[in-house]
Amino acid sequence: MAYEVLWISAKEIDQLGITMLEVMNAVETGFAAIGRGEGEMPAKIGIHSREDCFIHAMPCYLGGDIDRAGVKCVSGYPPNPAKGHPYITGIMLLNDPDTGIPVAVMDAAWVTAWRTGAASGVYARHFGNPDTTSVTIVGTGVQGRVNLLAMMEAFPKLNKVRCFDIFESSIEKFITDMQPQLPEATFVTCTDLETAVRDADVLITCTPIVETPERSIPQSWVKEDCLVIAVDYDSAIHEDIFKDANFTCDNRNQYVWTQEQGTYFQNGYPLPADINADMGEICAGIKQGVREGKRGAVLMGIASHDIMTASLIYDRATTAGLGTKVEL
Ligand SMILES: NC(=O)c1ccc[n+]([C@@H]2O[C@H](COP(=O)([O-])OP(=O)(O)OC[C@H]3O[C@@H](n4cnc5c(N)ncnc54)[C@H](O)[C@@H]3O)[C@@H](O)[C@H]2O)c1
């Protein structure tokens, strides 16, 4: 017996017009399900065929009313852009939770980009000051862009964006792409990291994840009540920033498991006892976010985001008649 899988390309996903707000709501629903214990989500596992490169496998089942299952295979290869390839590539598979039979395969780069920005937006929803007007983006690549889109949702009064990247051309392109999305805002090109970070109300770091991190942003540069979001594991944020802070991770199990492997979150990063909450607990209403004081998050990216975002894409593509049916 032959089965059909719906193949959904990156171009087709773009045509669906899915908004950041929709992805944030989906990601928040997934967080809450995990927080209530209504799912199965082992920490992501990976292989590393080159230094600082990864191929991760991220399976997840979300139960309850959601009842969706699947797995993402995603690669991150920092040398790729110099070769003309994207840094992040991959495929996302959705399975029928009753039979396990694959129902859809789609581009995982879009899923990864948007759900990651959305997760920052959900954290900002629960921990940010809604009156925030300025944000600093360090690393103005794909994540810089989607994180800014999410901050626009979380902070409607946003009117200033400070940008830093090791390549000024990257900042210029970022501003060209993003200014039309936020026409009233002032975009500031910062030529040094310290200028970008000082006085930031919200700081988001989106630099490459590396095995030997520089953690070049120290506590002394950061305002006491700055909301700090590390999208790039422990690459950019010095451990002092999270010391005595209200520290949140996206998923306690995955953070602790990754720390135990001995590569990331070593040398002074929060230990299991230092985690105030994970985002599952926050979104399920088991714990409350705080909106002032020293606070920050490490958002590593979890598989529930992928399942929720891919399900949104699959449902929308099915309704729109987009995608190609491929026989297995
Ligand atoms: N947490 C998650 O869920 C998640 C998901 C996707 C990507 N990521 C991570 O986010 C990071 C960014 O991914 P991306 O897709 O935006 O990559 P990208 O290549 O599109 O952008 C990275 C940007 O960082 C800049 N950069 C490099 N080193 C820098 C430094 N020291 N200081 C400032 N800028 C620097 C680069 O010039 C580039 O513009 C990567 O570490 C990636 O692994 C995390």
How would you describe the overall organization of this protein?
The chain has 328 residues and is of the alpha/beta class. The protein has 2 domains: 4-111 and 304-327, ornithine cyclodeaminase, domain 1 (2-Layer Sandwich); 127-301, Rossmann fold. Helices cover 34% and strands 24% of the residues. It is built from 11 helices and 16 strands. It has helices at residues 10-15, 20-35, 80-83, 108-127, 142-154, 168-178, 193-197, 239-242, 252-260, 279-283, 303-320, and strands at residues 4-8, 39-40, 45-47, 54-62, 68-76, 88-95, 102-107, 134-138, 160-164, 186-189, 202-205, 227-230, 246-249, 277-278, 295-298, 324-327. Strands 1, 2, 3, 4, 5, 6, 7 and 16 form an 8-stranded mixed sheet that branches. Strands 10-9-8-11-12-15-13-14 form an 8-stranded parallel sheet. Strand 4 and strand 5 (68-76) form a beta hairpin. The N and C termini lie close together (10 Å). The site of nicotinamide-adenine-dinucleotide has 26 residues, from helix 4 and helix 5. This is Alanine dehydrogenase.
What features would you highlight for this structure?
about 325 residues, Rossmann fold, about 35% helix, 11 helices, binds nicotinamide-adenine-dinucleotide
Strand content: 15-25%
Largest sheet: 8 strands, mixed
Ligand inventory reads:
nicotinamide-adenine-dinucleotide
The overall pLDDT, averaged over residues, is: 97
Fraction of residues in helices?
25-40%
Unreliable segments (pLDDT under 50, ≥5 consecutive)? none
Specify the overall morphology. globular
CATH superfamily membership of the largest domain, which one? NAD(P)-binding Rossmann-like Domain
